[in-house]
Amino acid sequence: FPVGDTRRIIREAANKTCFICCKMGATITCCQTGCDRTFHLPCAPDGQCVTQYFGAYRSFCWEHRPQQALRPRPSQDNTCTICLDTVEDNISYKTMACPACQDARFHRHCIQRLALHAGIDFRCPRCLKQEPFMTEMLTMGIRLSKRPPSWQSDPEVGPSDQRHGRCDATTCLCPGGREHTEAHGPWQLRLCSSCAAEGIHRLCSALGNSTCSWECSTC
Predict the structure, then answer these.
(1) Which ranges in the chain are annotated with CATH 3.30.40.10?
(2) Which pLDDT tens digit goes with each residue over 59-83?
(3) Are β-strands 199-201 and 189-191 bridged in parallel, bridged antiparallel, or unpaired?
(4) Across the chain, how many H-helices and E-strands are there?
(5) How far is the first Cα of the chain from the last one, in angstroms, to the nearest whole number?
(6) Cα–Cα distances in Å, from 180 out to 50, 55, 64, 188?
(7) What tens digit of pLDDT does each residue of 83-122 get?
(8) Where is each PHD-type domain found (predicted)?
(9) Highest CATH level, class, for 3-60
(10) Mean pLDDT of 130-147
(11) Lowest-pLDDT range, 1-15, 79-93, 170-184, 191-205?
(12) Considering the chain, what is the average pLDDT of its residues?
């Protein structure tokens, strides 16, 4: 954004209230026409909101988020394909399914962690198909990684090359773009304190100059 537009967005965000935590400084607005719900990126999981990490980086509140349309499942094996713990009987924000085999069920947080570790080899953990599974997961707000699978070692890639280096906020306010980072100040990039696979500029988060650690919506 031009500097003038960035300042305007910051001023507008400062006056918007997050409908989840009820605090000011909400920078994300639901993309549904006519919906004025705004929220902070870290609050999104608590409000069951969805952000699509591709294209225009659209975000949706709990009411307008995309829904999976699946046929009734012949079996009633209500266990997560990944962690083997119980999942909900019905598809929901927390319980997702594979559109290819129509049978695999998994927790949202389980499939998100798998996506970050599997990288370019991300596929359904049961039927092993990539399409339309990958497209569906992107639409439902699962963030994918363009890296090789974490279980494959690459001797040419050092630890410093593997550090996440872009802002994943739905609306990045940095005039230099998502890839621009600084050692200190508002454009310092904070990595998720749990997975380090997502990052956000200080000014693009709800934490501002706080010294508190930041955790991404996945974790």
Answers:
(1) 3-60, 167-206
(2) 999 999 999 988 766 556 688 988 8
(3) antiparallel
(4) 3, 8
(5) 29
(6) 25, 19, 32, 9
(7) 888 998 889 999 999 999 888 899 999 999 999 888 899 9
(8) 1-65
(9) alpha beta
(10) 92
(11) 1-15
(12) 83
pLDDT of residue 123: 94
Q: Which two tokens stand for residue 143?
A: 């963030």
What single-letter amino acid sits at 65?
A: R
**More confident: 111 or 217:** 111
Nearest to 63 by CA among 97, 39, 103, 32: 32
What number of CA atoms fall less than 13 Å from residue 148's CA on the CB side?
A: 9
Length reported for the chain: 219
What are the angstrom distances between the C-alpha of 119 and each of 135, 143, 204, 217? 14, 10, 26, 18
62 vs 20: CA distance, rounded Å: 10
Token pair of 198 as six digits: 């997502």
197 conformational bin, left if phi > 0, alpha if psi -120 to 50, beta if neither: alpha
Under CATH, to which class is 167-206 assigned? alpha beta
Cα 192 from Cα 195, distance rounded (Å): 6
Q: Which CATH code for domain 70-152?
A: 3.30.40
Q: Is the pTM of this model over 0.90?
A: no
